């Protein structure tokens, strides 16, 4: 298998560039320079050019980039030129916010399987999708061919949810529960914790309060 050496931060920034380009497209903008993209994404223009250079040549010297074309090219790089069917386990506060938010639909993520073990939720419909008990995860995921699973259950239920998702055939898991999950090596696992980001903020605020400038390694 070939290895594509692209920094993770580049992929994250491509997603940011693409969302910015989508917004500009809606506003009717036709062309854009790397400087404009950089301003919109909060990075420097050389970074924009370097990130794009991993994937080929884009834009025309002296003219800039065609907004629609570049956005389409980035969507293809991110595999967002196809629709992804997603499964969600845990239709509580966070699960509802995730499934209902229009941004996921706009970016091509379609929730086709939703699970919860609350008897009051099982059998109810969410935008045409029936909430099913977690005992059915494996069977339904496999039938619906969900390749991505999102976990929004309490921490003590998260590993069980992950195991069922993997048995059902998902290839990637986004875990919001505050627990590190064990999954087979071939499964792409991302764990999101807003508390970690908040705690990085409080660290920065504290060292500034103590009269230190920000350590070099933290300066973007
Ligand atoms: P919640 O209690 O509102 O929702 C949890 C849902 O999971 C409920 O509907 C419950 O019935 C369901 N559930 C419980 N066990 C289950 C199982 N075995 N199978 C299927 N469904 C099950 O909680 P919430 O506020 O939505 O938080 C959900 C998770 O996300 C928690 O683990 C929480 O700590 C975490 N969280 C993470 C972040 C973050 O930044 N990553 C932010 C907020 C919450």
By CATH, the superfamily of the largest domain comes out as NAD(P)-binding Rossmann-like Domain
Number of helices: 9
What separation lies between the terminal Cα atoms? 34 Å
Multimerization status: single chain
Residue stretches low in confidence (pLDDT < 50, at least 5 long) are none
Across the major sheet, the strand order is: 5-6-4-3-7-8-9
What percentage of amino acids are in beta strands?
15-25%
* Main beta-sheet strand count, sense and barrel state: 7 strands, mixed
Order of helices and strands: HEHHEHEHHEEEHEHEEH
Count up the domains: 2
The CATH architecture name of the largest domain reads 3-Layer(aba) Sandwich
CATH fold label of the largest domain: Rossmann fold
